[in-house]
Specification:
The complex is a heterodimer of chains A (about 500) and B (about 80).
Chain A: H1 3-24, H2 33-38, H3 45-56, H4 59-71, H5 77-104, H6 109-117, H7 120-152, H8 159-209, H9 212-222, H10 238-251, H11 256-261, H12 268-277, H13 283-298, H14 308-316, H15 319-357, H16 363-387, H17 392-404, H18 407-415, H19 421-440, H20 451-469
Chain B: H1 6-21, H2 23-26, H3 38-72
Helix pairs in contact in B: 1-3
The chains are: A mainly alpha (about 500), B mainly alpha (about 80).
Chain lengths: ~500, ~80
């Protein structure tokens, strides 16, 4: 067998095992909407950890982190800075979101807004922001997968073919096993990715420099400015670091798929424990940064920094190992895309289509529509990935700044009785408009401060001001009271 | 479900103070520790120290949360 066949065989084997595990996860569970979207709210510590690690550590995390370290240098530290902080935030808000979720049978982020603020329009707006922001994220997974497979197979497989085959598999196992399939497929993905990351992160500096210490010593000698902010950039300094870390750590769980992952937990205790241990997983990210920094000296002048990691691996290791990394990378893209598909499809069916076009739909019909939407979204994202040439990263950053604007509505909804629907609506709309304007006109960072952060501050201020001048009408969640009325159940439609 | 206690919130603020607001104090290459530039060393240490803080917060919060559950008569 020639080398591309070896890499290819290993890669396909890994993808096949991961997909199979995803399919098998369905066994012994009746797939109604509740089971499909939130796994029957029965996940313990291990499954919640797998699901969250599985969906949070995307291909973009690994290729992007090493790529930033390569092309921008020290500003990539924002990634290490935000990682533990977002779990600190999750420690305080996810158990409350979970509690509201269980009491009111919430399945999506938009459900949260519907029940808390009693407005289906606000919920539909939230769902729209979620779906629109998810599409570039989904497309990035597909494009990333194509790139990984192409590089790892030495060009033997065309990326379009790889994208179509793997995303047919993804759509199939989301269709069949729902969120449970995603969590189980994560087992294979996390295990391989952890092993690969630890091995690569330690071996690469060792092979080229004799260790991480000598590597940094060489880099500090050759390019000392690369190692402190603003690194190789002009405007990513300390103000940018603080604003970016604050914005991304506070609002990270506003991505609808991460938000909804908290509903799968068995208890609030599970989520708190998970928040305590999650920062440890980010140690693998720091290893990826080392590889990116190594490439600064070993492979200067790469046109695309995001390829730094894969190129280093291909140059350094035997072909079977390249196949393993390629397989782990492909499976990562598939797992992350799976949860994004599931979340986007459910948001559309439950919070956009149903309330606006067919209020009388039953849960079974919503589930059926959501499954159809899985296929539609897969096809749409595939089409975009194959035919569009827009820079994805900028779209993704826009999506992130967009979902970040949901934060005031969530956090004030949990902790304040004074916040009003009008206030949340106004703050969200203006924050969103401001973020889009600043980013599309090339004003990010704006005077050295993260544009999304500026939008978030305005959003908070406006939500507060409008809430103070409009009449309070506290609707859902007795969470803002000390003790929940335990008897309350039903999906909260009575409020809308 | 009760609001988080002050102690837990203060414990949660420690990592924020250490890795976010104080960036200009630790963003430097020297002294290198364990072969890492100081800023890398500092942030990686906080990947390990944040769980310690949050474990403390967990010890403070969990008894209150289970008391609230008992009040409601829930089985865990």
């Amino acid at each position: 067998m020639n080398s591309s066949m070896v890499a290819l065989a290993i890669m396909s084997g890994i993808v096949a095992v991961g997909t199979l595990v995803g399919f098998l996860a369905r066994l012994h569970h009746k797939m109604d909407l509740e089971q499909w979207t939130v796994g029957g709210r029965g996940f313990g510590l291990v499954l919640v950890w797998l699901l969250m690690a599985g969906e949070i550590y995307t291909t973009f995390t690994f290729l992007g982190a090493s790529g930033w370290a390569y092309s921008r240098g020290a500003p990539v530290l924002y990634n290490l800075g935000q990682a533990p902080l977002m779990y600190v935030v999750s420690f305080f808000i996810l158990p409350l979101i979970w509690e509201a979720g269980r009491t009111h049978r919430l399945q999506t982020q938009a459900d949260f807004f519907r029940v808390r603020y009693g407005s289906t329009y606000l919920a539909a707006f939230v769902a729209l922001i979620g779906v629109v922001s998810l599409i570039p994220y989904l497309q990035i997974q597909i494009t990333g997968l194509g790139l990984i497979v192409e590089v790892a197979s030495f060009g033997a497989i065309h990326r379009t073919f790889a994208m179509i085959v793997s995303f047919t598999l993804v759509a199939a196992f989301v269709f069949v096993s729902g969120v449970r399939g995603v969590a189980w497929a994560s087992i294979v993905k996390d295990l391989l990715l952890l092993l690969a990351a630890i091995f690569i992160g330690i071996a690469v500096p060792h092979i080229y420099f004799g260790g991480v210490g000598p590597m940094f010593a060489a880099l500090a000698h050759a390019k000392p400015r690369h190692l402190v902010m603003p690194g190789a950039t002009e405007n990513l300094g300390h103000a940018w670091y603080i604003s970016t870390v604050l914005m991304s750590s506070l609002t990270f769980y506003m991505w609808p798929q991460y938000f909804a992952a908290s509903f799968t937990a068995r208890s609030g205790k599970t989520l708190r424990r998970n928040a305590v241990i999650m920062p440890l997983y980010s140690i693998t990210t720091s290893l990826m940064l080392f590889v990116g920094l190594c490439a600064v000296l070993v492979l200067p002048g790469l046109s695309n920094g995001d390829l730094a990691l894969l190129t280093m691996v291909r140059r350094t290791f035997p072909v079977w190992f390249l196949g393993m990394v390629g397989g782990a990378g492909a499976l990562t893209a598939m797992v992350c895309a799976a949860i994004q598909l599931l979340t986007g499809a459910t948001l559309y069916a439950k919070n956009l289509f149903k309330p606006i076009f067919a209020p009388g739909m039953t849960d079974q019909q919503v589930a059926k529509l959501a499954k159809v939407m899985v296929l539609v979204l897969t096809l749409g994202a595939l089409f975009l990935a194959i035919y569009s040439s827009i820079s994805l990263v900028s779209l993704l950053l826009l999506g992130f700044a967009g979902v970040a604007q949901l934060f005031p509505g969530v956090v004030l909804g949990l902790f304040s009785k004074r916040v009003t629907t009008a206030g949340v609506f106004a703050g969200m709309a203006v924050g969103l408009a401001l973020a889009v304007f600043l980013m599309l006109t090339g004003r990010d960072p704006y005077y050295g401060v993260n544009a999304g952060f500026i939008a978030l501050c305005c959003n908070f201020a406006l939500t507060g001001m409008v809430s103070l001048v409009t009449r309070v009408r506290v609707v859902g969640f007795d969470t803002i009271m000390p003790v929940l009325a335990a008897s309350k159940s039903g999906d909260g439609t009575s409020f809308s | 479900m009760k609001r988080p206690s002050l102690g837990a919130i203060l414990l949660g603020l420690i990592p924020f103070a250490a890795t976010c607001f104080s960036v200009s104090l630790w963003d430097r290459v020297y002294p290198m520790i364990l072969g890492l530039p100081f800023n890398f060393f500092w942030l990686i240490s906080w990947l390990l120290l944040t769980p310690v803080c949050m474990w403390g917060a967990y010890r403070l919060e969990e008894p209150r949360a289970s008391a609230a559950r008992r009040e409601k008569g829930d089985a865990e």
